[in-house]
Write a structure and sequence with these properties.
Layout lengths: L9 H8 L4 H13 L6 H6 L9 E5 L17 E6 L2 H11 L6 E6 L12 E7 L8 H11 E12 L5 H11 L12 H8 L5 E7 L3 E3 L2 H9 L9 H17 L4 E3 L3 E7 L4
Parallel strand pairs: 1-2, 1-4, 2-3, 4-5
Antiparallel strand pairs: 5-9, 6-9, 7-8
Helix pairs in contact: 2-8, 6-9, 8-9
Length: 270
């Protein structure tokens, strides 16, 4: 089994990796605390599309629902959030209940088989989740099916090379890193898959190098994913030590480059 293979297995994702928000929180924390972009990713991404009052919006792979905390989304939105993990859906709906949306509905489901009627939604959001799906084109066919003819899909992803410096440290200590996942559906191959389902596709890059001065936060990020999440205590200690050494070697601030952004997809293919 490759280091990233568990991250594409539905049972592992729902019952271990994303049983609750802790692993995702460790990764979000690194970006939120040490990102250098003028605004957080979710604010930047929400500004890529036009929102209108009363829209029916679906998020596939919502996690804890953090995307919807931005004020860039009108509170007149009728929001349906879905995830493979019951724990994530429970957390998202609980956290979003007081957010002021017109309605919030949570559904546990597989992105490859969405339990919604055709042409149900005005906008679909899928953030950093298609590389977890066993069959991304099948999920994209479902995205297109549940969108109305004039609807838009907002699909965020990464590319190989994302978090390169952090992955280098993991590989030095453990022999491999979780970097292969970004090749499943990423910047470099995602548009080709999208062309089968959407007529208009535009890519938007989010520039946000991280500058990290706390090795413990780097170790927490690494420990939220295989291979570090399954490493022995001694290996985890070695990894923490390696991050401390790397931060010190870079003058107390380790730079980590990101390769991330979002596709905005509209229309049907000709």
């Amino acid at each position: 089994m490759t280091p990233t293979e568990p991250l594409r297995q539905p049972e592992y994702l729902a019952t271990q990796q994303y049983v609750d928000g802790r692993n995702l929180g460790a990764r979000s924390n690194l970006h939120d605390r040490y990102g250098t972009a003028p605004v957080p990713f979710r604010v930047w991404e929400a500004q890529l599309v036009t929102w209108f009052d009363g829209a029916e919006v679906l998020e596939v792979g919502t996690g804890p629902g953090r995307f919807w905390t931005t004020d860039a989304v009108p509170r007149s939105t009728h929001l349906t959030v879905t995830d493979l993990s019951p724990g994530m859906v429970r957390q998202a709906t609980t956290d979003l209940a007081p957010a002021g949306y017109a309605s919030v509905c949570g559904v546990v489901c597989d992105a490859q088989s969405l339990p919604f009627d055709a042409a149900r939604f005005d906008l679909l959001v899928a953030n950093h989740m298609l590389y977890h799906v066993p069959d991304p084109p099948r999920a994209l066919a479902e995205f297109r099916r549940v969108l109305r003819p004039g609807g838009t899909a907002l699909i965020a992803t990464n590319a190989p090379g994302h978090m390169r410096q952090l992955n280098e440290v993991i590989a030095e200590v453990l022999g491999h890193a979780p970097s292969g996942l970004n090749g499943v559906f990423g910047i470099d191959n995602g548009e080709l898959m999208l062309r089968d389902h959407f007529g208009g596709i535009s890519w938007h890059s989010f520039t946000n190098p991280l500058v990290v001065d706390d090795a413990d936060d780097l170790a927490a990020y690494a420990g939220s994913l295989p291979p570090a999440s399954t490493a022995s205590p001694s290996q985890r200690a070695d990894l923490s030590s390696a991050f401390r050494d790397r931060v010190a070697a870079e003058g107390g601030r380790m730079r980590i480059d990101t390769r991330t952004g979002a596709f905005v997809c509209t229309g049907r293919p000709s």
